[in-house]
Amino acid sequence: MAGSGVELNGWGAPPGSRLEIRVERWPIRGQFNIARGSKREAVVVVAEIGDGIHKGRGECLPYARYGESVEGVVASIEGCRQAIASGLDRATLARLLPPGAARNALDCALWDLAAKQSGSSVAALANLPPLHEVPTAFTISLGAPETMATQAKAASQHPLLKLKLGGAGDVERLAAVCAAVPHTRLIADANEAWQPHETESLLAAALDAGIELVEQPLLAGEDALLAEITHPLPICADESAHDGASLEALAERYDAVNVKLDKTGGLTEALLTAERAKALGLKVMVGSMVATSLAMAPALLVAQDADWVDLDGPLLLERDREPGLAYEAGSVFPPPPDLWG
């Protein structure tokens, strides 16, 4: 990733290219709970760009927390139809759309199309070494302490678990999971649910439970406190961090940043954001929304030398795409060309 030399120009959709947009619903196994709500399905938007011979695909998940809706993202992608027909590259796309889900789907579709046009891999086009498998976290949904402990024990074949926290009751959740899986690596995600007055005590409880990273304890925009308190373990920005331009203001508050393609607006900016984070002395986590292997595949390029990886979305679904990503022994493997890249 570092020194990848990613450029915005180069390969793109040639004039005459066509755009297809699909909204797809993928049932979640059971129910996925975080501090701000629950859901039973992942509703994704897929953009497909074809040049008459080859087709490239990209998947995004519109996220209401960032003011996105499925309808709005579809409309934003649809608004690029004429630009695609006229010939669209990633530099022009970055000017047409802001960072977010819509740009992510199109940016990843352009990378995939370029790989198919060139007969090469996206990794090679991005000046990266051949991809290798990376360890990924497996998420334990927010619930009662005993429920999370039971789920963690059932998932203990995964070397790294990510615990969704919710504020009230988190001390008990942390203690219960730690007791259930004392030899498993643990990270935690509060999804902005902690209150300022309890942050230090909850960080201490997380440290006691063996947590090695806490994501986004406080509301984005209300996290200045983090620059004033001691961090007994690394704190990672998620909702507070979007693209590379957002990072400098966070460097004194956080120790790490969660790079997600649906926030950065695609692989192009995600690679640049990860490089910027490292230049600022921040560690890098690569995450994603709950989506299919098509959404995870581009993120694997950013994850190659990340400090933490959280790309378990397909494992949380009732079913995945065919072909999909291969997961084995807590690691996720590079995508087959028929999937992406």
Structural description of this entry:
- The protein is of the alpha/beta class and 341 residues long.
- The chain folds into 2 domains: 12-125, 2-Layer Sandwich (Enolase-like, domain 1); 134-332, TIM Barrel.
- The chain is built from 11 helices and 16 strands.
- Strands 7-8-9-10-11-12-13-14 form an 8-stranded parallel sheet. A 3-stranded antiparallel sheet has the order 2-3-4.
- A hairpin with a 4-residue loop joins strand 3 and strand 4.
- Helix 7 runs parallel beside helix 8 (199-208).
- The longest helix has 18 residues, at 101-118.
- Residues 1-5 have low confidence and may be disordered.
Keywords for this entry:
single chain; 341 residues; alpha/beta; Enolase-like, domain 1; TIM Barrel; eight-stranded parallel β-sheet; three-stranded antiparallel β-sheet; 16 strands; globular
